Amino acid sequence: MSGFLELAISGLMSGLVIGLAALALTLVFGVARFANAATGDFMTCGAYAALLGFGATGSMVVGGAVGLAAGALVGMVSYLLVFRTLEGRPSVSALLASIGIGFVIRAVLGVVYGHGQQVFQLPLVRPWRVYDLRIQPNDLKIGITALVALLVVFLVLHATPIGRRMRAVADDPMLARVSGIAPRQVMLALWALSGAVAALAGVLLGIKTVVSPEMGWEMLIPVFAAAVLGGIGHPVGAILAGVLLGVLQEIATPYVGFTYKLALAFVILLAVLLVRPKGLFGRVEGVR
Amino acid sequence: MTLSRRQTLAALAGSVLLPALSRTAGAQTAAFRIGALNPITGAGAPYGSGMQKMIVAAAAMVNDAGGAGGRTLEVSSEDTQTQPQAAVLAAKKLIEVNKVQAILGTWASGVSLAVAPLTNDAGILLMNTSGAPALSVPPANAKGLLYRFQATNDRFGRAFAEVATKQGFKRPATMAFNNASGIGNTEGFRKAWEAKGGKVVENVVYEPNQPSYRAELQKVLAAKPDVIVMGSYLADTTIILREWFQTGETTKFIIPAWAANPDLVKALGPEVTEGLISVDSISNEGSDAFKAFDAAYQKAMGQPGLSNVYAAMTWDMVVVLALAMEAAGPNADVAAISAKLREVAGPGGKAVSTFAEGKAALKTGKIDYQGASSILDFDQYGDVTPDFSVSVVEKGKIERKYIVKL
Amino acid sequence: MDAYLIAIAIITAIYVLLALGLNLQYGLTGIVNFGHVGFFCVGAYTTAILSEHGVPLVVSFPLAAVLAMAFAWPLGLVSIRLREDYFAIVSLGFSEVVRLVATSERWLTNGVQGIAGIPKLFAGWLTGPAQSYAVLGLLVAFNALAILAMLRIVRSPFGRMIEAIRDNEEAVKALGKDPAGFKIQVLVLGAALAGLAGAVYAHYIGYISPEQFLPLITFQIWMAIIMGGVGRISGALVGAGILMLFLEGSRFLRDVMPFISEVSMASVRLGVVGLALILFTMYRPQGLMGDFTRK
């Protein structure tokens, strides 16, 4: 039983990382209406930038801040250089371009840092024992960070003027424009927010695992599955779906085997799209 | 969609006419052509350049000693990109354009397996540094023209079993990265361990690139092993060991050295890595041949020869090939040279360490080239058995403890 | 020298076959298939496994195409009605699952060890250069057939229908036609071409393993048709040619760009594919060969 619970906790942690990335994906999807396939590579950027900050100062908080800033910057630059031009074109164009951006990011990181792994050298600690359960202090930190991030995104969306404008654009771009909302500014803010959230997911993933140029891209399918499962454009849904996916993946492995763990995300994605395409929490907006 | 028939025909014609563009006559001279086909780019890049430079350096050394069997060696170099498809094209170029009679130094197993049918068809030699068991037997080694200078994954597994016995472990479990090399190591271990009458308590194969390996670890640890034998790489080993440490368990690990290296110790720190056992196939370090190789490697790369075991192998490839040519006599064909390969490297002759020494000794009798990479005794499959070093991580330093000979 | 150029021509022709399939799907019908390599993989493994068991090539080749179709059909059935970008990710996931199955089911595919010693085409009858010419001839024949078939399709009512679906799916629905049925047919047809390409690839390279079927292949083909010209058959040919020129040409790139280390060349290749995707979608969506006025 305790083994089962420990698996669930482990899944929860992976799920929070997936959920945060799904949040980044869903923010852009909800407003700009295309799947940003470079989300995973934004994560990677965040992780490398955080390594830089951490290496220079030795403080994980500073490292994390540098990572977030880099993620926001990459998001904004991608928008200004590429996605702004592609507004109004079929969503496939933006999707293809985002694949291209992902490739370029991976290529640049590969050239600059090589393909070897890098790690955050944080002190490792043995677990606390609560009854028969092993609780790892690092897990708690990751969990708290993810929740705080979610709270901040929620506040930005619902309690700031720019957030309100974002939601207005998401609901009806034409109406928003007529009401005098400058879409450029809103979009910039949106891309910055999405980039920063993705970067945070990347930093957490980097702490849990190792940092390499491909780390984010490999997560794309689970992340997309979580975004769809949560309902596109629904921030809380994305996180919850990510957690659900993470826990399911871990708990199911004794039954489906370790190699098919990754196929599970795909099956869930397909099932959701077929049965309940608006996701668990989504509003009625066509995926068909 | 507007498309005229003329456009289509023109485009079709283009793809047909392309091959007829040029024709070069390959005039044969008194040179024996060899192709250096190495992983210059891609995953094998850290080793590829050194491997290629050693082929060139060894060939120059042979030529300086007056050539082999009356011929000089001529090297053409290509890059496999560590990818089967690119390697096939490169091999085609070497065979057809450069007319090489031996290809030396393919590294990844997938690349060697893809190139082998081409060299077999052309009836030329393929000397590789790959680990996959499939390279020992047909169809890959259908004509006996494949020679392998690296330990097979199977032999790595056998070395692991030797180490486990020597350290007194009783209940080993295995974890393998899901690729040919990872599974090859742990399967080799399982076979050798069971042949000794032991039992492996759990086998887990995992997929790479996961945010966590706790489920896999939990399954292995549930069987209460006293040691976990890994067929793994650096990145996944880093994550697994970190998560293992955080479970609070105190199992031991036997890990191949390409994963349990200084980078791993640096990534995890001394406390986590204390007591890890790292096993590596090693060059024939004390030998005179190794000294010669080391000097050449220092000169070409500015690093000690110990830093690239594969370069020692490619060095040996050229020397053994040249000695076989010398033994086979002037203008011998590939089959005749191949027939002499085992003879000049195998036991039962005067031990020699350089080409010049061997060339002189061949005038009076049989020789046994003791290589820089291993003593180079090819078995019936064209495989060699290098020695293995066993190291233990102590206070953040990887200390070599002893050598295992199979 | 001939044989090297023929080898390049053969690989190019395999890319052309893949590009033609994708062009049919995306260029003519607007299906965003990000899982093309999955069908390529199915075709390659089908014929490799069958010929391991002594099935003659005349049987295993058609079966490679048929099996690729058999994989495409249910995929289309369950997901073709999705919005195009959803379908894109689903198909990407599909190709990854195919690769995962090839990796995991060792009894069938020999897992990560791959299948070695796949017999050469025409092995019994021809050797040396003649054999390579025959393979190239076969590929040219396949391509020619595919092109002829596509030309016929374009001029048929079916062709007008799928182009209408590409240009305005809503209008097609308004006319009371169901686009999904047509799109599934196109998906299946394109998969057949990819399966066939996979079969030739397997017998030409002689060794296949799961790691040869990464999504990167899919996006290289995307780069090819986008650079060549979406919706144009000549575009598929030109695009595949450019792709090959780039992949083989990068062997010589190091000579002109000495500041890039050997290790980084793989990254540079990836970056160029990415940059080409970005720049062409932004500035020349019609590709080199096409005008895009109809879209």
Q: What is the level-2 CATH architecture name of the largest domain in chain B?
A: 3-Layer(aba) Sandwich
Instruction: Give the overall shape of chain A, derived from the CA principal axes.
Output: globular
Main sheet attributes: strand count, strand direction, barrel closure of chain B = 7 strands, mixed
| DSSP helix fraction of chain B | 40-55%
In whole angstroms, the N-to-C terminal distance of chain B is: 67 Å
Question: Pair with the most extensive interface?
Answer: B-C, 59 and 57 residues
Q: What's the helical proportion of residues of chain A?
A: over 70%
Describe this entry's structure for a reader.
The complex is a heterotrimer of chains A (288), B (406) and C (295). Chain A is 74% helix and 2% strand. With 288 residues, chain A is mainly α. Chain A has one domain. In chain A, strand 1 and strand 2 (133-135) form a beta hairpin. In chain A, helix 1 crosses helix 10 (235-256) and helix 10 packs across helix 11. Chain A is globular, with a radius of gyration of 19 Å. Chain B has 406 residues and is an alpha/beta fold. Chain B has 2 domains: 31-148 and 285-369, Response regulator (Rossmann fold, 3-Layer(aba) Sandwich), CATH 3.40.50.2300; 154-281 and 387-404, Response regulator (Rossmann fold, 3-Layer(aba) Sandwich). Chain B has 13 helices and 14 strands. In chain B, the strands form 3 sheets. In chain B, strands 7-6-8-9-10-13-14 form a 7-stranded mixed sheet, sandwiched between helices. The termini of chain B are far apart. Residues 1-29 of chain B have low confidence and may be disordered. The termini of chain C are far apart. Chain C has helices spanning 2-28, 36-52, 57-79, 84-104, 106-109, 128-155, 157-167, 169-174, 179-205, 215-228, 233-256, 265-283; strands at residues 115-116, 207-208. With 295 residues, chain C is an all-alpha fold. Chain C is globular. Chain C contains 12 helices and 2 strands, in the order H-H-H-H-H-E-H-H-H-H-E-H-H-H. Chain C has one domain (2-213). At the B-C interface, helix 1, helix 2, helix 3, helix 4 and helix 6 of B face helix 1, helix 4, helix 6 and helix 11 of C.
Keywords summarizing the entry:
heterotrimer; A: 288 residues; mainly alpha; disordered C terminus; C: 295 residues
